[in-house]
Amino acid sequence: MRVIVVGAGVIGLSCAVRLSEAGYDVAVFARDLPLETTSAVAGAMWHPFLSAGDRVAGWARSSYDEFVKLAGSEPSVQLRHGKEYYRESTPAPAWAADLPDLQRVGSLPPGFRDGWAFTTPIVEMPSYLRYLVKRLEAAGGTLSRAAFSSLPNATGLVVNCTGLGARLTAQDPTVTPVRGQLLAVEQFGLTEWMLADHGPQDLCFALPRSNDIIVGGTAEPDNWDLTVDEKIAERIIDRAASLIPELRKAKVLRQRVGLRPARPSVRCESVRTGDRRVIHCYGHGGSGVTLSWGCADEVLELVREG
């Protein structure tokens, strides 16, 4: 069966890999190629964020298991330990059962009243996107640039993984941007990640990777601005350096802005209109990587169901 996947971010590529490796004839078309997508900007730590729906926990669990397997063979996937700090007492997260080493933090920084420590996958984008493209091509799939204002009216099946583009391709105004600004700084030997509660829009995190550290960030709803704001960058560094002082002197390598595709709930379903069938898979918020393999598995099942 011919399957057209529209969108080449982490969701589109993961779905395309699953389908092509299952024997389907897969062609991926996208306005933005993988390294131009929001996925390429992501800090990409496995941690459900800005995603809703009753199936999110299951998708996250499946993705976690897949990333743990990949960490043994794919250098762009690393399992790293770290700590998450909260301003108020906080129960264990709903996905705690997926983390075998989750434990409460005993000694907290000033101003924080609770915290959790655990090991989780950190996925190094954009190297990981290149890896997915290689898997797709090795399985016989193709990737091409094409801009669509609506989904292609082609024979076969269409899988819509257009993220924010679903406002056009699915005529869905409930998909809205959540602006995220972050920095990459030089790697000075940091091995453990850090997350800290600083409110719904002012995020605080430091995610160590092989050759740099991703420091963030923001979560600004309904903000389409892709311009780096230097004042925001200064606040980002200030917040993170209050917990990891070495970050204040680390050389800034680059700054990026991405627009997370938020939606009241993730849409992953098959829709038939006459003889045409479309599988929609979008609206993952800040959890594209976290939910990617679980959603890809569900898309594969929806394709098989016919």
Summarize the structure.
By secondary structure, this protein is of the alpha/beta class. Helices cover 25% and strands 32% of the residues.
Question: What is the topology?
Answer:
Blueprint: E1 2-6, H1 10-21, E2 25-30, H2 38-41, H3 56-70, E3 77-86, E4 103-104, E5 114-123, H4 127-138, E6 142-145, E7 157-160, H5 166-169, E8 176-186, E9 193-196, E10 202-208, E11 212-218, E12 220-221, H6 230-241, E13 252-262, E14 267-273, E15 276-282, H7 288-305
Parallel strand pairs: 1-2, 1-7, 2-6, 3-9, 7-15
Antiparallel strand pairs: 3-5, 4-5, 8-11, 8-12, 8-13, 9-10, 10-11, 14-15
Helix pairs in contact: 1-4, 1-7, 3-7
Descriptive report:
With 306 residues, the protein is α/β, with parallel strands linked by helices. It has a domain at 2-82 and 122-175 and 263-305: Rossmann fold (3-Layer(aba) Sandwich). It is built from 7 helices and 15 strands. It has helices at residues 10-21, 38-41, 56-70, 127-138, 166-169, 230-241, 288-305; strands at residues 2-6, 25-30, 77-86, 103-104, 114-123, 142-145, 157-160, 176-186, 193-196, 202-208, 212-218, 220-221, 252-262, 267-273, 276-282. The strands form 2 sheets. Strands 3, 4, 5, 8, 9, 10, 11, 12 and 13 form a 9-stranded mixed sheet that branches. Strands 6-2-1-7-15-14 form a 6-stranded mixed sheet, covered by helices on one side. A hairpin with a 2-residue loop joins β14 and β15 (276-282). It is globular. 47% of the residues are buried.
